[in-house]
Amino acid sequence: MLYQFEFRPYRRQFKRALSTSHGNWDIREGIILRFTDDKGAIGWGEIAPIPWFGSETLPSAINFCRQLGDEITTETIFSIPSKLPSCQFGFESALNFGFWILDFGLKADFPNSVESATNPQSKIQNLKSKIAYSCLLPAGEAALHQWQTLWQQGYRTFKWKINVVPIQDEIKIFAKLIQALPTSAKLRLDANAGLNWSAANEWLKVCENYSQIEFLEQPLPVEQFDAMLDLANRYSTPIALDESVATLSQLQTCYEKGWRSIFVIKPGIVGSPRLLRQFCQQHDIDVVFSSVFETVIGRQAALNLAAELSHRDRAVGFGVNHWFNEDEETWLENLWNNPH
Ligand SMILES: O=C(O)CCC(=O)c1ccccc1C(=O)O
Ligand SMILES: [Mg+2]
Fold first, then answer.
1. By residue range, what is the domain housing residue 134?
2. Which of 132, 150, 144, 174 is nearest to 289 (CA)?
3. Does residue 329 sit within a domain?
4. Which of 171, 223, 237, 280 has an alpha carbon within 20 to 30 A of 248's alpha carbon?
5. Ligand 1 atom closest to Cα of 192?
6. Marked catalytic residue, from 128, 159, 161, 186
7. Looking at ligand 1, which atom is closest to the CA of residue 159?
């Protein structure tokens, strides 16, 4: 199959910088893809790399798009190399995305929320409306002032970045946060690979006292896989791998080396949806699907996969819209119609 191909790089500023153990992140950059088939039907895709997580860089993704010219075939798409995992995701999902509607404008293609089942793919829409969302809190003290608003919006699972302020201060804020949260809330802690052995043990000892902790995410650097296995066996709080399983080949390796606790999958950077689907259908793994701060285009494709492949009642880490200011659909229409 042959498609006409267009793409637009984009930049979106976070409302406030996202603080993680790696430092601050101010601007989300990516690429929107548009395919048109011979009947005029449109498919949308998105490439949203995170190089500090192990995906390709934005310039390498842009170069890949440029050398394609203005036409693309299914064969080309299925032969994108695994060193361009975000491109694999963006191009493959454009094949499945949006070929239900002619190009009446972006607004017609994207229902406002996943709950509004207004398109013919309503089976998936219905599935998606049943998924619970986890909401990303701001790091540090700010979490104490934010969680209530988010609770009122209906969120029951929250994620908080740790290793952002000195550990003793952070544990004090954590104690306040966990005591403020209703007992029915769940809290995920994400260390973004920044702890050392003793800090990881310290956090896990603190966590033993609180039943609301769902898991500790990526406590140690990727190289310290055996130490994370050890931690997973030592404490009652589950450990989730994230940076360690950023791409599909890493995911396979960790599974083969015996990881049976939680795997965080970010569809936007993990690689080919087709190969991911295969892996998840062959292995009964405990998966948390998670956002890469993509736009509604990448998010819809990622949530389709999450709805299809997650089965253990884990909230998806896509409660991140409040990190941006603008109305997404207006923003996308502008990007497409007035590119700079
Ligand atoms: O997973 C979530 O709940 C939110 C998304 C998130 O935390 C994230 C988003 C972009 C890059 C890295 C991460 C991360 O999990 O470390
Ligand atoms: Mg993480």
1. 124-323
2. 132
3. no
4. 237
5. 16
6. 161
7. 3
Q: Bigger pLDDT: 203 or 121? A: 203
Ligand 2 center to residue 17 CA distance, Å?
Answer: 16
DSSP 8-state secondary structure symbol assigned to residue 10: E
Whether residues 70 and 143 fall in one domain:
no
Q: Using alpha carbons, select from 178, 187, 188, 176 the residue that is nearest to residue 219.
A: 188
**What are the tens digits of pLDDT across the range 231-264?**
999 999 999 999 999 999 999 999 999 999 999 9
Q: How far is CA 144 from CA 141, 170, 228, 338, in A?
A: 6, 12, 29, 40
189 and 113 belong to one structural domain:
no
For residue range 90-148, list pLDDT tens digits in order: 999 999 875 444 333 444 444 333 333 344 444 455 556 678 999 999 999 999 999 99
Residue 234 CB contacts under 8 Å (≥ 6 apart), including other chains = 201, 204
Closest ligand to C-alpha of residue 292 is 1
Same domain, 42 and 148: no
Question: Which residues approach ligand 1 with their CB closer than 6 A?
Answer: 50, 134, 136, 159, 190, 192, 242, 290-293, 317, 320
Among the atoms of ligand 1, which is closest to the Cα of residue 218?
A: 16
Least confident of 106-120, 222-236, 313-327: 106-120
Do residues 14 and 139 both lie within one domain? Answer: no
Pick the last residue of a domain from 117, 146, 176.
117
Q: How many domains does the chain have?
A: 2
From 128, 159, 186, 266, the catalytic residue? 266
